[in-house]
Amino acid sequence: MSTWPPIERDTKSAAFFDAAAAGTLVIKGCTHCGQTLSPEAAACTACGGTDLNWVDAEGTGTLISWTVVHRAPNRAYTDLVPYTIGIVELAEGPWLYARIAGAEPSAGLPLRVDFVHTEGAESHPIFREAS
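Above: the chain sequence. Below: its structure as tokens.
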């Protein structure tokens, strides 16, 4: 059985993956106006500020949209399909793209974060139906 393709951290994403390894979802927050932003944000969408820090997210959200992937990116991953990738609107407001696991997708589906911890690879968030 294949494992998911490796995720590689860089200096900009290190805090995100460190938090995921500890079982915490983090997002960006603007220190000027307090707006919450997606993890990859480089500037605030509300005030344009670039002084952003990492803040803990609640880890709950709603499924906005999704797609089911039926074709593996290459032969090494054929046993992983099908899988669902979705847009999750977090309780704090930002949207994240993430794998949706163990749920029949539907618009408005309440979700909670979970984490994949694979030996020798970066931990990362996925979302499951909130119970």
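Residues 32 and 44 are 9 Å apart (CA to CA).
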